[in-house]
Amino acid sequence: MGFVELDGVGMTFRGRTGAYEAVRDFNLELAEGEFFCLLGTSGCGKTTVMNMLAGFDRPTSGEIRLEGRPVRGPGADRGVVFQGHDSLYDWLTARDNIAFGLRLRSMGRGERRAIADRFLNMVGLTGQGAKHPSELSGGMKQRIQIARALANDPRMLLMDEPFGALDAMTRAVLQGELSRIWSENRKTVLFITHDIEEACALATRVGVMKRGPGGTLKAVVPIDLPFPRERTSDAFMACFRQVHALIHEEIHPHE
Amino acid sequence: MGFVELDGVGMTFRGRTGAYEAVRDFNLELAEGEFFCLLGTSGCGKTTVMNMLAGFDRPTSGEIRLEGRPVRGPGADRGVVFQGHDSLYDWLTARDNIAFGLRLRSMGRGERRAIADRFLNMVGLTGQGAKHPSELSGGMKQRIQIARALANDPRMLLMDEPFGALDAMTRAVLQGELSRIWSENRKTVLFITHDIEEACALATRVGVMKRGPGGTLKAVVPIDLPFPRERTSDAFMACFRQVHALIHEEIHPHE
Amino acid sequence: QNAPIKMTIATGVDPSFAPYYVAREGGFFTRNGLDVTVNTGPSGSAMIAFLIGNQINSAYGAEQAGVSAHLVDPNVVAVAEGTALLRWISVLGRNVENMEALKGKKVGVARGTGSETFWLSVVSKLNLNPADYTIVNVEAPEMVAALERGNIDAFAVWEPWPTRAMRAIPNTKILVSNEQIQIVRNFVYMNKGWAQSNMEATTRMMRALIQAQEFIASNPTEAAAQVARFLRQDRAFIAELMTKVEYKMNLTPDSVGNIQLAIDQLRGMNRLSKEVTPAEVIWKEPLAAAAAGRVMI
Amino acid sequence: MNSRAATVAGYLIGFALLFAIWHLASVFIVRSVLFPSPFPVFERGWVLIADGLLQESVWASMRRIIQGFLLGSAIGIPIGLAIGSFRPVRLLLEPWTEFFRFIPAVAMITVAVIWFGIGEESKIFLIAYTTVFVVVIATAAGVGAVGKDKIRAAQCLGANKFQVFALVALPATVPYILTGMRLAMANAFVTIVAAELVASNDGLGKMLWDARLFMQVEDIFVALISLGLLGFATDRVFRLLIRAFAGRFNPTM
Amino acid sequence: MNSRAATVAGYLIGFALLFAIWHLASVFIVRSVLFPSPFPVFERGWVLIADGLLQESVWASMRRIIQGFLLGSAIGIPIGLAIGSFRPVRLLLEPWTEFFRFIPAVAMITVAVIWFGIGEESKIFLIAYTTVFVVVIATAAGVGAVGKDKIRAAQCLGANKFQVFALVALPATVPYILTGMRLAMANAFVTIVAAELVASNDGLGKMLWDARLFMQVEDIFVALISLGLLGFATDRVFRLLIRAFAGRFNPTM
Ligand SMILES: Nc1ncnc2c1ncn2[C@@H]1O[C@H](COP(=O)(O)OP(=O)(O)OP(=O)(O)O)[C@@H](O)[C@H]1O
Ligand SMILES: Nc1ncnc2c1ncn2[C@@H]1O[C@H](COP(=O)(O)OP(=O)(O)OP(=O)(O)O)[C@@H](O)[C@H]1O
Ligand SMILES: [Mg+2]
Ligand SMILES: [Mg+2]
Hints:
Chains D, E: It is a multi-pass membrane protein. Chains D, E: It is found in: Cell membrane. Chain A is α/β, with parallel strands linked by helices. Chain A has helices at 46-54, 94-98, 100-104, 109-122, 138-151, 168-185, 196-202, 234-251; strands at residues 4-15, 18-30, 35-39, 61-66, 69-70, 78-81, 156-160, 188-192, 205-209, 217-222. In chain A, the strands form two sheets. Chain A has a six-stranded mixed β-sheet, sandwiched between helices. In chain A, strands 2-1-4-5 form a four-stranded antiparallel β-sheet, covered by helices on one side. In chain A, strand 1 (4-15) and strand 2 form a beta hairpin. Chain A is globular and about 50 Å long. The model of chain A has no long low-confidence stretch (mean pLDDT 88). Chain C has helices spanning 18-25, 28-31, 44-48, 63-72, 114-125, 143-149, 161-168, 178-181, 192-197, 199-218, 220-231, 235-242, 253-268, 278-281, 285-290; strands at 5-11, 34-40, 58-62, 76-85, 89-94, 106-109, 134-137, 154-158, 172-177, 184-191, 245-250. A six-stranded mixed β-sheet of chain C has the order 2-1-3-10-4-11. Chain C has a five-stranded mixed β-sheet with strand order 7-6-8-5-9. Chain C is globular, with a radius of gyration of 19 Å. Chain D has two domains: 1-35; 38-246, Orthogonal Bundle (MetI-like fold), CATH 1.10.3720. In chain D, helix 3 (53-85) runs parallel beside helix 6 and helix 5 crosses helix 6. By secondary structure, chain D is an all-alpha fold. Helices cover 81% and strands 0% of the residues of chain D. At the D-E interface, helix 1, helix 4, helix 5, helix 6 and helix 8 of D face helix 1, helix 4, helix 5, helix 6 and helix 8 of E. Bound molecules: adenosine-5'-triphosphate (ATP) (2 copies) and magnesium ion (2 copies). One adenosine-5'-triphosphate sits between chains B (13, 15, 20, 22, 40, 42-48, 83, 212) and A (131, 134-140).
């Protein structure tokens, strides 16, 4: 029995324009401590899968289990980094946003502040803790979101293109931090990205989705390389090419 | 006299947490038909510069001129692709969002639809025109925004990380389309990105900003390669390395 | 010396309720060992309803309202006739000479108030045909505006409206005054349950009101000044209005007649939920206890 | 379907509870002749319905409410949009709206009669008067809350001030306008009672005033309950119409 | 600074215009003894101020308005949040709020007096009554408009239902609550007039009713203008307080 099991999961949206089957028969098992990267073309259903695993939406078919128990709703055991910045609290400073989860557990003010500042530091926003979200740039907001999820120290992390709006350098730094946190605590991670190199650098397994309608898991590539990974090594390059081929095939199926 | 001139432009935000000088003494001249890529670390002031050029914010010092006349406000001559998706109209379908600018010019319904469908096609969303923004994935929303700006056929395009939330393949397709449109009509483009390869592939010149506070233009690299560019060529690689070094230096100034 | 007895009474703002105001402003309540709070509302009749919940101990108002309240709660009783409104209500016409000329025209009447009672009496006393007149329901304060605008050609309403209208609008005159038709009377009401268990206070209040009435009769100018002060109104205006009424504080066959008339009128309007007699509505003990000579029934 | 059944069940339970509490209050707590238990009130209501009197009053009042409400909304929406969109308009008109909205309709009766006479017009005027300010404020607040990127996008697609107003501010403000109209509807119901104080021969307001004058407690409560239930029903219909016609503007309502 | 001057100038011009139009209307259009020109009204107002009578009335009414308004808001905000946040609460309470909000305060006078007597309490009750529903609806609408990602983020940071309610729904709803309170304030002013119909010895409402009974047109207008100006001033103060204390919740107001 895996830590997380997605068992024949499907999701059909019913809207004004009729029904749309976004995900069909999605099967996946994650062991505890795995770092799973999910790739796929835009609109194939990645966010939809993540929303179901987080417990925000109920699958319209199939079942999702966490440690054998069906997922019924969101919980502090699964920290989420959302696509977009709507999830930040406009009325709180960057620091208070990061400390929000700690406040929920009635942690003392001083301790909260110390932890929040540590994570502000980690995402490269030292000294910017007093700004409100409306005073931050796009990439800064995204980093606050990441810091908020990490500061809460969940067992599992669900991250939807967390580094999408960041420059290469900031991105590399955060990749390193995430990898370090993961190796130290062996959290289970589901990581959505469009960056194949990023996926190959971080993941223990990479999953590629078929495009929609009826998006589903098309192939899973295990990456058995030691951390930290040497991105110029031949083994890394081989992985990269394998994943790249899978995605390319998806875009141009007849070539 | 350039087509666009930014002359000693500065921007200081005054908020509850005091004043913050985001941009200082920014100087740049763009010739008509140039494709200028602006790079810089997250939070260095790229969006701020673009907002001033678009006419949304007035610089607190210096002046911006378009064809010699000071910019006083936004206009249809400068099409903008925003960072984030708040600018889409939730109450309109994807197709009507794309056709919004055409409707403003009282173009007939049929013609509008035909143009909108052409651009839907171009961004890979054929047949999805009837969906509303809330029914679209993050990447799909971004593509609708791009299509909306392009469909309006402005003289100048201001694009803030337009391809940020897209997978490599969709991104490559759109880069190709943008490059083609640009070569055909020689629009002037200001393009903000974090992807150095993307910048080198598209731009006639690449600008790198110094990090804030007081972010400003640090260096400009002209890229005199013919289009379409061969990304594996030595000349391309040289450009890439040059820009990469500039940015790297910015992150680790003392190395 | 005992602490003064606390009481709450309520009524409208109108010189026809002068005994209340004078008893307070002239200190008659205090001299009788009462500490009285006088509350005012839009009309005396509206305040009678508060006797039902025993929110107040006494009220001052018209017959119909008293009978209506008595029907809901038999504890609401009339203890004295307070004021006879001699030249108080009139039919006032604009561009019409007499009741004959008013035929086929529109008359403003404030439904459910003394205005309506009066109009019904005019019709029956002068043997008019009600079908000859178009009745328009208008609240008293809007009468003048309606007349001015030509929405109505005449109205039947109490002072100060007729006086005001005659001053403000040309070609207006009083067609009928209530002196020729029917003397309307305002009564003092009490909650019988409360009064019986507070007989001492009740008697003292009756005594204070009688003294106030006598004071008004003997010192009309000073009384008018007191009323004007209480109402924050112009002195001369109040004095003029006070000449149109007579303050009584007694119970006479006329009082009984008016209560009977009110009962009949309510029956005619299909508003009488059960039969009552004036003897049930009037309770003479308190007045008898204070001044036996004033009870003449 | 299931959710609709839950809604109806919730409403039924809610109303049943309301009447149960009323009954208990009238029997055990208040015990005043002025506060009847629900049964004599329902009985009286039934009599009035059998006589056709209640329907007549309801119809007369509803006609006035709807006319005044629609008139008030039709005036209030454009004014609110203009106040929210154009600073000079705001500065000039705000003293007016912010002044008049605190002046009660009941105090405007005399003025209404002077202008419109004692007929239907003055009643409709009073209801429109009471509707218009709520709609103005809610609409202006809505315009203020339109995301600035939405407006900027329109501007750089070439929209002039009027187009931003009509094609962005208006549709983006629809949820606020509708909330404002829902709130204003209660004002219209409240004001009908004051309006029917002026020279009227029918309507629930007149029924209420008459009943008050003659202390007919059951009639008072019949009128009150009619107003409450009518209001409830009108609000439901309004929401249904919103869902049907304007749903895409308003995912949350 | 410049913008504040423009605001004040705008207000002054707005009010000047209002009084100019009033003057012209009274002289050329309406020409009724019941519609005085502004000058005798100001004169009468001055006399009332010199006698201290106007201040007394204003103070009496404002005390009641503020007490009732604060009470109504204090009750309405949590109820609105609960209705917006919890479906069972909504289904059960909605019939109540949606029923009572259509019943005018003026019709509740009798009930208020039965419960609270003819003293201050019944007046404050009536004002609270008229405040509470507007605040409830506006608050509940605000909760419905909270971005779902904000709520989801709290849930997966471990917030229980109550914490989502208090730490996300409440602050995110503040702009709606404040708009609701601004709208409700007008209701409070409107209702003070009805409330002071009940056995009261002071206040602007009583001044208005007395003046109506004695046809003192100038006094009526003094009372109306006092209500309007007080309302205007109260609204400005309310907005300033919002800016000062709750500005970060509410960038648009
Ligand atoms: N409205 C504002 N008020 C105060 N500070 C602001 C405001 N907008 C931006 N800033 C500050 O200005 C700086 C530059 O912001 P800007 O959005 O231009 O960055 P950027 O280069 O676009 O970054 P990114 O790549 O993350 O989008 C940041 O430090 C930000 O905190
Ligand atoms: N609420 C909804 N109603 C209807 N259709 C929806 C809804 N949400 C998503 N979809 C559809 O489901 C499909 C998958 O969406 P999803 O957001 O999961 O894509 P994604 O893989 O995350 O894409 P991206 O990389 O662009 O974020 C899309 O075609 C989208 O149009
Ligand atoms: Mg997605
Ligand atoms: Mg930016």
